[in-house]
Amino acid sequence: TWADTVQQLSVNRAPTPGNPGGTPKRSMPAISPAYYPKGATRGIANATGVSLLLLDFDNSDKVPTGQYHLDKRTGQPTNRPVLRDELIEEPVQMREPMAVLEQAGVAAFAWLTWSSTPAGPKFRIVVPLVQPVPVSRWAVASEWALTALGLDPFRRGLDLPVLRNPVALAFLPGSPNPETIVRTEVRGEHL
């Protein structure tokens, strides 16, 4: 339920000590907007529908570094460029889309992410849906939602590939110092 989701998003989490898999952030639990039949693994082919609108505000553009990823078999450069995130001008602030959602009367929950900084805010917003959207219709439904909710002016800060990916993951609110996590909630109706 939405109440269960809000409860999980309200828990302060810290990274797992000694995470052998890489960065501490990667030891954190995550949320996905999709749902699956029992026993299915995460993936577009296995997802049955989408029950949350996941808005990933990274406020960055992907900029080529001039380097290319290496082929794992040969060690030679591929034609896939290595990209770095570059902060956009006039980053979207979390309060801006949340105010629009509040005005629309739509429930939403937002939090600053692990890598957010005052100069480069990064945050996630989840909005519950009245009924699940079939995965095959998600690209159209997610675009409709942006326009219907009045969020088009904030596209500049959105990671649109994440929005369009029905099985995207968003790490739950977490930090090396969990007491510093900033969250906000808008009470309202499901979209």
Ordered list of secondary-structure elements with their pairings:
Elements: H1 2-9, E1 30-31, E2 34-35, E3 49-57, E4 60-70, E5 77-87, H2 95-104, E6 108-112, E7 123-134, H3 138-148, H4 160-164, E8 170-171, E9 183-186
Antiparallel strand pairs: 1-8, 2-3, 3-7, 4-5, 6-7, 6-9
In short:
The chain has 191 residues and is an alpha+beta fold.
Descriptive notes:
The protein is 18% helix and 30% strand. It has 4 helices and 9 strands; from the N terminus they run H-E-E-E-E-E-H-E-E-H-H-E-E. Strand 4 and strand 5 form a beta hairpin. The protein is globular, with a radius of gyration of 17 Å. The mean pLDDT is 91.
Strand order of the largest sheet: 2-3-7-6-9
Low-confidence stretches: none
For the biggest sheet, the summary is: 5 strands, antiparallel
End-to-end gap: 14 Å
Shape: globular
What fraction, in percent, of the residue positions are helical? 10-25%
Quickly count the helices. Answer: 4
